Amino acid sequence: TMKNPVPQAASLLLEKLLLLVHVRPLPAGSGGEPPPAPGCYDTSCFKRGDLLEVPRTLFIHFGIYLGENRVAHLMPDILPAFTGDRRQIQQVVTNKRLILGVITKTASIRVDTVEDFAYGGSILVNHMDRLFEDQVLGSEEAARRAEKLVGATAYSLLWNNCEHFVTYCRYGAPVSFQTDKFCETVKMIIRDQRSVLASVLVGLASIVCLGLAPSTTLPTIFIPFFLWMAG
């Protein structure tokens, strides 16, 4: 897992915001469409140790291909906290199990078929290699790292998610670009709100110095207000 570089209160707030963005019902969960039938994915183009990505609407799910139609991936799941029955845990994670896993910060690194892993989505192979250049580990090393980590694990949307898992396995360091991008977006929003606040203060100062007049009062009140609402 990655070391948490921000205060705990800020971390909890960011995780709650990220939860609202990332958690969406799974197609194979509560009454959704079932995953594609076996044979819908051509696994002959996958090699052991490949990093698989499944783009979703608002996020990307990641896994490491182990060969023989098996993918290791980290999934939030409340069930491992209550039972060690592998048959129950190995069943497809439902929406309720996933959401409760996120909230309680429990998960498992599990092995599923390509069909269950992808849930009907398109699959990208080793798409992140270009970002790491010479840091790519050998395919067998990546697969072995994934296999050693299979089982129950702690979960964090910010510090230990499915992207951290695969980047550790394939590149040797747990990184999440999705988390980094989200945090940068939050920082931009905070900076924008500070800019609006600064403009309000400047406007109020101008009213004090220049007096109450439509030419100073109305822009001071309405422009920052609309900027704040837009932010």
TrEMBL record:
Superkingdom assignment: Eukaryota
Can you tell me which residues form the catalytic site?
162
Q: Known catalysed reaction(s)? A: all-trans-retinol--[retinol-binding protein] + a 1,2-diacyl-sn-glycero-3-phosphocholine = apo--[retinol-binding protein] + an all-trans-retinyl ester + a 2-acyl-sn-glycero-3-phosphocholine; all-trans-retinol--[retinol-binding protein] + 1,2-dihexadecanoyl-sn-glycero-3-phosphocholine = apo--[retinol-binding protein] + all-trans-retinyl hexadecanoate + 2-hexadecanoyl-sn-glycero-3-phosphocholine; 1,2-dihexadecanoyl-sn-glycero-3-phosphocholine + all-trans-retinol = all-trans-retinyl hexadecanoate + 2-hexadecanoyl-sn-glycero-3-phosphocholine; 1,2-dioctanoyl-sn-glycero-3-phosphocholine + all-trans-retinol--[retinol-binding protein] = 2-octanoyl-sn-glycero-3-phosphocholine + all-trans-retinyl octanoate + apo--[retinol-binding protein]
* Cited InterPro entries: LRAT (IPR042288), LRAT_dom (IPR007053)
How is this protein annotated for GO cellular component? Answer: endoplasmic reticulum membrane; late endosome; perinuclear region of cytoplasm; rough endoplasmic reticulum
Query: EC number(s)?
Result: 2.3.1.135
Main localization is cytoplasm
Q: Give TM regions.
A: 196-229
Annotated signal sequence is 1-28
Q: Which GO terms describe its molecular function?
A: phosphatidylcholine-retinol O-acyltransferase activity
Q: Does the keyword Transmembrane apply?
A: yes
Q: Where in the cell is it found?
A: Cytoplasm, Perinuclear region; Endoplasmic reticulum membrane; Late endosome; Rough endoplasmic reticulum
Its placement in the membrane is given as: Single-pass membrane protein
Question: Which Pfam family, any one of them, does this sequence belong to?
Answer: LRAT
Pathway membership:
Cofactor metabolism; retinol metabolism
| Keywords attached to this entry | Acyltransferase, Cytoplasm, Endoplasmic reticulum, Endosome, Lipid metabolism, Membrane, Sensory transduction, Signal, Transferase, Transmembrane, Transmembrane helix, Vision
Biological process (GO) annotations?
retinol metabolic process; visual perception; vitamin A metabolic process
Domain LRAT, chain residue ranges per copy: 51-178
- What exactly does this protein do? Transfers the acyl group from the sn-1 position of phosphatidylcholine to all-trans retinol, producing all-trans retinyl esters. Retinyl esters are storage forms of vitamin A. LRAT plays a critical role in vision. It provides the all-trans retinyl ester substrates for the isomerohydrolase which processes the esters into 11-cis-retinol in the retinal pigment epithelium; due to a membrane-associated alcohol dehydrogenase, 11 cis-retinol is oxidized and converted into 11-cis-retinaldehyde which is the chromophore for rhodopsin and the cone photopigments.
Give the record's family classification. Belongs to the H-rev107 family.
Name this polypeptide is given: Lecithin retinol acyltransferase
